[in-house]
Amino acid sequence: MILAAASLAILVALTLGVIRALRGPTVFDRVLAANAIGTGAIMLLALIGFLAGRPEFLDIGILYALLNIIATLAVLKFFRYGDLSHPGGEEPGGP
Amino acid sequence: MADIQEMAGGALIAAGAFFYVVGALGLYRMPDVFTRMHAVGISDTVGVGLLLTGMMFLAGFSLVTVKLAIILGIILFTSPIATHALAQAALHEGIVPMGVGTEVLLGPGARRRDRKKTKGARKARAAKRRKRS
Q1: What is the pLDDT of residues A15-25, one digit of tens each?
Q2: How far apart are CA B27 and CA A12, in angstroms?
Q3: Is residue B17 less than 8 Å (CB to CB) from chain A?
Q4: Domain segments of chain B: what residues?
């Protein structure tokens, strides 16, 4: 019972995150919302795994948690340097 | 014993879901990027921590508990990294946090890039400046 209620709460939170990702004025709002949606997906996965009595879903949750940070950093680096293989540090056209 | 375990787990999960929704509400309602990051911090620490701890109580001592602890550790370690990178990228892009002067964070001569560039917005700013002086 409490698991279903918590899943519903996470779904509401995911909806709010999706709305922010669609409306976010800057790209950083969208990246932040994508990060929050990823975390919410992990939580929903774990809760539904417990709800269905199959906690083996948690392996997928670990994978999502690892991918989430990589995706965020990759998107941020791409928008800052315009190239994922850029060594970083120096600005492309700056001093 | 098992009853107490389930009750404690249920209470922790309920509290975690509450904090998670509060954080998401902040993500939706807050006025600018940095304040939204602050709101997401709630759901990424308290919300996730309480939810996963409650599920650990429900699972008892098994491999599932170890997996939940691994997820909790990964999220607790990577969420500040992501937030830090995001805040640094936003500041570098020239977005100014609300309530802080441009010169404080970016040095003198920094430009504001988050202003609206339409004609109406420019006129409104000019009117405001005239009113102040």
Answers
A1: 999 999 998 78
A2: 12
A3: yes
A4: 2-132
Contact at 8 Å (CB) between B29 and B74?
no
Domain boundaries, chain A: 2-81
Q: How far apart are CA A21 and CA A23, in angstroms?
A: 6
pLDDT for B13-53, tens place per residue?
Answer: 999 999 999 999 999 998 888 999 999 999 999 999 999 99
Measuring CA to CA, which residue among B43, B52, B40 is closest to residue B12? B52
Which class for B24: exposed (0-12), middle (13-18), buried (19 or more C-beta within 10 A)? buried
Rounded to two decimals, the ipTM of the complex is 0.86
Q: How far apart are CA B14 and CA B67, in angstroms?
A: 21
Residues 23-82 of B with CB under 8 A from A: 23-25, 27-28, 33, 36-37, 40, 43-44, 47-48, 51-52, 55, 58-59, 64, 67-68, 70-71, 74-75, 78-79, 81-82
DSSP labels for A11-26?
HHHHHHHHHHHHH-SS
Counted residue by residue, chain A has a size of: 95
